[in-house]
Write a structure and sequence with these properties.
By secondary structure, the chain is α+β, with helices and mostly antiparallel strands. The chain has helices at 3-15, 20-39, 47-58, 63-74, 106-119, 148-158, 179-188, 211-225, 241-248; strands spanning 83-90, 96-103, 123-125, 134-142, 162-166, 169-174, 193-202, 206-208, 230-235, 237-239.
């Protein structure tokens, strides 16, 4: 698992344990609203909404809060209209970074994201400068232990691409449009699905062996991710396991 994936997993675990929980809730609710606005409020026909609904529930967001967000998205309740904007840039060691935001004020968000890059040793790049280094994929994390041959058979039969071990668990990669069907198939086989989401996967990673450089990169990632309008941060770094372990502590 890449250093970025380890960072993302640790970030979510920390978010469930401390004051970041409220911020995680707010970001998920915003994503639910946008998914409902773009594809309708029925989770059975809107795969993006279904994914976000499940993600919000996995984070323990109350059902009534999710339902109100869906109604705001469909226009049944009054709400703020958010715009999706992505930013590309470089962090320390030339690490490629993509930031996905949902904002009700483009100018404010743009200025603040640029400031966060500059303050933490990064630079903003032109659109398209780093996006070509990433592929959009579905990632499903399932709970182990599981017989790997059996898991491979189920994943292939459901239309998944491959999987990698992540401790006792497994990370399954799919094409974006297959993430829902692969998740359903695994659950039908009584596999415990921990998360299922769309993400950007780096085609190649930049190895980071220095603890000093790793701290600089993680400082930038955390600063950007902490911004209220930021929904996702992706990067192509691969930090050594022992350094990531220290970060988790």
């Amino acid at each position: 698992m890449s250093g970025h994936s380890k960072w993302a997993t640790t970030k979510h675990r920390k978010g469930a344990k401390d004051s970041a929980r409220a911020k995680v809730f707010a970001k998920l609710i915003r994503q639910v609203e946008v998914a409902a606005r773009e594809g309708g409020g029925d989770v059975n026909t809107n795969s993006a909404l279904r994914t976000m609904f499940q993600k919000a529930r996995e984070a323990s967001v109350p059902i009534d809060t999710i339902e109100r967000a869906i109604k705001r998205g469909t226009g049944e309740l009054e709400g703020v209209r958010y715009e999706a904007i992505s930013y590309e840039g470089y962090g320390p060691d030339g690490v490629a970074v993509i930031v996905e935001t949902l904002t009700d004020n483009r100018n404010r968000t743009s200025a603040e994201i640029k400031h966060l890059f500059a303050k933490n040793g990064g630079t903003i790049a032109e659109p398209g400068a780093v996006a070509w280094q990433f592929d959009r994929k579905g990632i499903i994390e399932v709970q182990g232990p599981i017989d790997e041959d059996q898991l491979l058979e189920w994943v292939m039969d459901a239309g998944g691409e491959n999987f990698t071990a992540s401790g006792l668990n497994f990370l399954i990669t799919t094409e974006p449009h297959d993430v829902g069907s692969v998740r359903d198939a695994l659950e039908a086989h009584k596999v415990k699905v921990l998360s299922a989401e769309l993400t950007l996967v780096a085609q190649n990673s930049i190895p980071v062996q220095s603890e000093t450089e790793a701290k600089k990169i993680l400082r930038l990632m955390d600063a950007i991710d902490d911004h209220d309008d930021v929904q996702n941060v992706f990067a192509n770094f691969d930090i050594a396991d022992e350094i990531m372990a220290a970060y988790e502590d």
